[in-house]
């Protein structure tokens, strides 16, 4: 089982947030009561409790992104099934989100993986990648340039090569949390 969160979703017809989330049940039929409970739980998980009746098109871009994440989550609500792990494929899951909601989304993904599910995310935010990823694949022009643990992949040399500019890793002095990257020179 897998669920996909695209970077952008465009809808041509008016739907409520709950109706969008319920699309996630297309491949996983559930009863009416369980459906309503899972929709409410998924919207709450993404920071939109009680917002299911709102029109999707009238929500902000970040709220729409979180509704789409809730839709993907109900598709694979349980990270592990009898058949094995379920997977979340996330394309820029934090685009259009403020910092607090970025952290919420990344924690959801990390908790999903910690519960036995798999998460593959395309990310351009190097700080969040360094904070949350267990394994990083760095690509440049469609080719893998480095792969492995974040501290092995996210080096001055690898990042400078991949992004085509001179970058330097910064470390916060107190707790060693990475702050990436700093452009060097002009």
From TrEMBL:
One of its GO terms (molecular function) is ATP hydrolysis activity. Part of the ABC transporter complex HmuTUV involved in hemin import. Responsible for energy coupling to the transport system. The keyword Nucleotide-binding applies. InterPro entries: ABC_transporter-like_ATP-bd (IPR003439), P-loop_NTPase (IPR027417). It comes from the Bacteria. Keywords: ATP-binding, Nucleotide-binding, Translocase, Transport. This is Iron complex transport system ATP-binding protein. Residues 4-94 form the ABC transporter domain. SUPFAM superfamilies: P-loop containing nucleoside triphosphate hydrolases. It holds the Pfam family ABC_tran.
